[in-house]
Design goal:
- By secondary structure, this protein is an alpha/beta fold.
- It has 3 domains: 86 residues, Arc Repressor Mutant, subunit A (Orthogonal Bundle), CATH 1.10.10; 87 residues, 3-Layer(aba) Sandwich (D-Maltodextrin-Binding Protein, domain 2); 103 residues, Periplasmic binding protein-like II (D-Maltodextrin-Binding Protein, domain 2), CATH 3.40.190.10.
- The protein has 11 helices and 12 strands.
- 29% of the residues are buried.
């Protein structure tokens, strides 16, 4: 003999319709409500009409100029709006608690750029932890699960790693000693392909894949002139220290030059090289619950 299906403890609630109602009560405008909820204006009208059919009476008076709740709508709002606010507070508190229990470990190279810093500042305290990654080893920490996201110079084509976002396309500059005039660098306004080919460079020293090196430590200019790497460095700061006392150069993106200013270094543009980009990369096998939200927030802070 089959047992009857138990009735739900609570009747099924039209949560999307009630959420739409609670927003419209505040906005009193279908267009602004649609924008707030990420819906079309027609969809908002449909949800409100459906809720009114469920209740059995109009909840709003609509004219060509304004929208206002009916007496029944105001009575419903007194119950529904505080309830949704408590639901939101409880949900946000749970997310904050989970984030604090397992912080989002963010790997970065060279510097924490301003858009990234703004996103981190808006997260719950303790929910993100920064980990500096070697210049010449952008992917190993992520592959081993030591960070949850890596914000690194692209490209990334590593198996098991997924590029979630690309941003900050930047022209390439070269760092040279401020005290010495390096061989091949004749002017202060920029470095030509001929000048760059005559300048011994400091490149990344580490396990970065060859395809990544071809972009971030190119062997040739776009015009085909061959570049020479006379030394290697594990970090940008180490490379700059090597440049400061020698007649060598180090290639880096324009944005990085604003974060690594030193009195013994000057920076010159190199128009003959292709721009670089940053990528947000995740480990496909070790997803973090905050990763998608972080990327969405970052997308709202970049150009």
């Amino acid at each position: 003999m089959e047992r009857p299906t138990p009735a739900p403890v609570l009747p099924e609630l039209p949560l999307q319709e009630l959420e739409c109602f609670s927003v419209l009560v505040h906005q009193l405008h279908f267009g602004r409500t649609a924008e707030r909820l990420g819906l079309s204006q027609g969809r908002v009208s449909q949800l409100i009409k459906r809720l009114e059919n469920r209740v059995g009476a109009p909840l709003f008076r609509r004219t060509s100029r304004r929208v206002e709740p009916t007496e029944l709508g105001r009575a419903l709002a007194e119950e529904v709006v505080p309830a949704f606010e408590r639901l939101r507070e409880g949900y946000d508190a749970a997310r904050a608690g989970a984030a604090t229990a397992r912080p989002l470990r963010l790997g970065f190279q060279c510097a924490v750029y301003e858009p990234v810093a703004r996103v981190i500042a808006g997260l719950p305290e303790g929910s993100a932890r920064l980990v500096e990654l070697p210049w010449a080893d952008p992917f190993s920490h992520l592959a081993r699960g030591e960070v949850d996201l890596a914000i690194v110079l692209g490209p990334c084509r590593e198996p098991g790693l997924e590029v979630l976002m690309e941003f900050s396309r930047q022209p390439v500059w070269v760092a040279v000693s401020a005290a010495q005039r390096p061989v091949g660098v004749a002017g202060a306004d920029g470095v030509s392909a001929e000048d760059l080919a005559a300048l011994p460079l400091v490149g990344p020293r580490g396990p970065a894949p060859e395809y990544w090196r071809q972009v971030n430590a190119p062997r040739r200019t776009t015009g085909g002139r061959e570049l020479t790497y006379a030394a290697g460095a594990a970090t940008i700061q180490e490379g700059l220290s090597m440049v400061a006392g020698t007649r060598r150069g180090l290639l880096l993106c324009e944005r990085s030059t604003t974060y690594v200013q030193r009195p013994d270094i000057r920076f010159l543009p190199v128009p003959e090289l292709e721009p670089t980009t940053l990528e947000v990369v995740a480990n496909e096998r070790r997803p973090h619950p905050m990763a998608a939200g972080f990327v969405e927030l970052l997308a709202g802070h970049v150009d």
